[in-house]
Amino acid sequence: MTEPTNFIENIIHEDLESGKITALQTRFPPEPNGYLHVGHAKSMCINFGTAKKYGGKCNLFFDDTNPSKEKTEFVEAIKEDINWLGFSWAEIHYASDFFPTIYELAVKLIKEGKAYVSDETAEEIRMRRGTLTEPGEESPFRNRSVEENLTLFEEMKAGKYADGEKVLRAKIDMASPNINMRDPVIYRILRATHHRTGDTWCIYPMYDYAHPICDAMQGVTHSLCTLEFEDHRPLYNWVTENCGFEKRPRQIEFARLNIENTMMSKRYLKKMVEENFVEGWSDPRMPTLSGIRNRGIPPEALIDFCERVGVCKANSEVEAGYLDAVVRDYLNVHADRAMVVKNPLKVKLLGAEAQTLAFEYNPGNPEKGTREISFSDEIYIDADDFSLNPPPKYHRLKKDGYVRLKNAYIIKYEDVVLDAEGNPVELVCSVVPGSKSGSDESGIKCKGVIQWVDAKTCVDMKLRTYRSLLLPAEYAGQDFSERLNKESMTETVCKAEAYLSTVAEGERFQLMRMGYYKKATDKDGTPLLSEIVSLKDNFNAKK
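Above: the chain's sequence. Below: its structure in token form.
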């Protein structure tokens, strides 16, 4: 049998070895009330990945018990995210599939004296619930007769009462040390059109009641969820036991994925979309899986990141740079190289001949070979790669200095044309004879190597870069709305080698000395180079 590698797998391994279960079944249970974010990727890896490892199956289960916030749009987006990450579900189920059974089981609880209809408001229920150190106060409706409760519950279902006028509560223990066990609400009245059942129902089960029933009815053996549900486990077990399920799932909690300075709340993400701070759920700055996909991060890198983070019992926060570092590692191997100049400075080259030069696709993958790039007597380099007054240890182009053009020649400074403010607007350089890359016989050693583009064939392209949507917190508990980074996206026009205008949309590149970008198309139809991740690696630099 496959050896376990974390505490969840230890439990599953023991349950299989002991014969407690004969086959593993998990489920991935999102609520379709928004797009999935990066934190859900970890849950996917655990639920789908663990089932696959132990030869079991994992269902996709939609917890659609709150119709006021759920949409078919979100259902379809979630399916797309799962497929993008390379996972596949055995079966697909919705809580709404089980609504009739969930209702009948509530009737069963009423008949057994384990549930009652209460006329209390949400505020009254909260006030009587007690505290962590003080027991709760019993509802004045707790001892209604079974017959009265059955009648009232049927009338709730029939639409006789207004929203919030009555609720159905489980009758458990108002003195329980676990507040979740103090007669929790298990049904409420809610007139909202459901994305699947329409207006068939005007009462809906609460998550803590419906979810364990749906798990049991699907045959789930291990319900894997995040730590915030740990205190809900006794209620989960109470529901499956008192509803009469012989085979009851085992709930196991793990630490959710938290990333430093990253918004991981659907509520806030939804607010960002609705207030037009971003361009929808798939905006490349969003930590949603669709945003990550749109940004160009490969699914393999995201899965690798989740596996490196691992499965823990205690919540912690991952540095924001860690995901970038993992993505960078992947793209360094898989992304081809190309050249653009962000801040162009024209250079006239004395002694240059129009020709094509060999440019390697990827130095780390020599088997891919080379492609041809054009070279002429006029090129662009980045203005930052030339200095009239260079600081110490400056290894780029300067007065009377040399620099190597990537995959081309060594050039020597000859002259400069300045504007009225004394800024360089054009350089004159000479090509050092015999200095061609791969066959250099010049004897000149250059520490600096810079990117360039041929001025006669290059194209103008938009270059878009991204930063975090959130500024660092100034104090503990600072609200996200106070930390929004209004400069999270910047755009400029660069000079790009013509090759980049011909490649397919979605292709990923390392733009030399700049970062990893993907080819995209802007809303107006113009070509765009969109940043995936910068070359700067702050995470590994700290090690």
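The CA atoms of residues 376 and 476 lie 57 Å apart.
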